């Protein structure tokens, strides 16, 4: 499980850097500056706990699987944002003042992004199974 946690953490970091780099390009920054937070590594690593859910909903249509992942990711994002605010006094991804924000911890307009990210992690889980890094 430790290896998979690390793989999910690294994959999440990479996806976030690509996402923020694309965002910087759309804002006119041709340097494609992307970034993330050290805190995000263990948060993305928590995707390892989605593996049993993926195993149980594998046969569901993609729209339902993606919906489940979206809700779960929002839940993790909200809870970890709240915990970080309590622990260090700030949530690194403070969405306060942005449209569709809930307490500055999540943005509901990111639902399509988390839908896609959940499905990417699902494919990553399948690859980990194929190379023998999971029991399932």
From TrEMBL:
Localization per record: Membrane
Membrane topology: Multi-pass membrane protein
Segments crossing the lipid bilayer: 5-24, 30-50, 62-84
Protein name per UniProt: ABC-transporter type IV
Record keywords, A-Z: Membrane, Transmembrane, Transmembrane helix
